[in-house]
Amino acid sequence: MSALKIKKGSNKHSAYNLRPDFSDVTERHTIAVLVDNEPGVLARVIGLFAGRGYNIESLTVAEVDHSGRMSRITIVTTGTPQVIEQIKAQLGRIVPVHEVHDLTVEGASVERELALFKVAGTGDKRVEALRLADIFRANVVDSTLESFVFEMTGTPEKIDAFAELMRPLGLVDVARTGVAALSRGT
How many CB atoms lie under 10 A from the CB of residue 169? Predict the structure, then answer.
């Protein structure tokens, strides 16, 4: 089968139309938004996504300038290029928004996420969980005779990989902060 995305009930991609429609390609974007730190701003930003049916994969918010009362919202979302452009334009129109940056298209950026993993197990599974934690540079932040809580910082892909390896070893719970990101360079 070809690499074309075929919609059910559509003849859009027939044998006579071999050009793929690139507007159907979904991309993952990290968007940083600088806003006033005041009540209701986060609700307005989230409302923009919910009202238009856009998904938020990750959301982090923190005050970054205490004297200027500014917060940074980092949003990871997916959509077609047209949808991403629409999201950025609509974010820019919200009154307390000062800046909107699409870190995915503006150049190289650094993304990190903090996660806590509770893993329960004894015997060989306990030893294997500790060995894997060492390989992934996860820190033990709590330990009992029957469980560990590991802390790890890394890319979302690293967090996902560690979680998948911990599942058969007794992964009980996961808490993730969401992506924090900054562009690289000056």
Answer: 19
* pLDDT at site 155: 95
Assigned CATH topology for domain 22-102: Alpha-Beta Plaits (3.30.70)
Mind listing the pLDDT tens digit for each residue in 70-125?
999 999 999 999 999 999 999 999 989 999 999 999 999 999 999 999 999 999 99
**Residue 142 and residue 148 in contact, taking contact as beta carbons nearer than 8 Å:** yes
For 65, other C-beta atoms within 10 Å of its C-beta total: 11
- Enter the pTM of the model: 0.78
pLDDT above 70 (res 32): yes
**How does DSSP assign 68-111, residue by residue?**
TTEEEEEEEEEE-HHHHHHHHHHHHHSTTEEEEEETTTSS-EEE
User: CATH fold of 109-183, please?
Assistant: Alpha-Beta Plaits (3.30.70)
| Same fold: 22-102 with 109-183 | yes
What tokens were used for 81? 């290029």
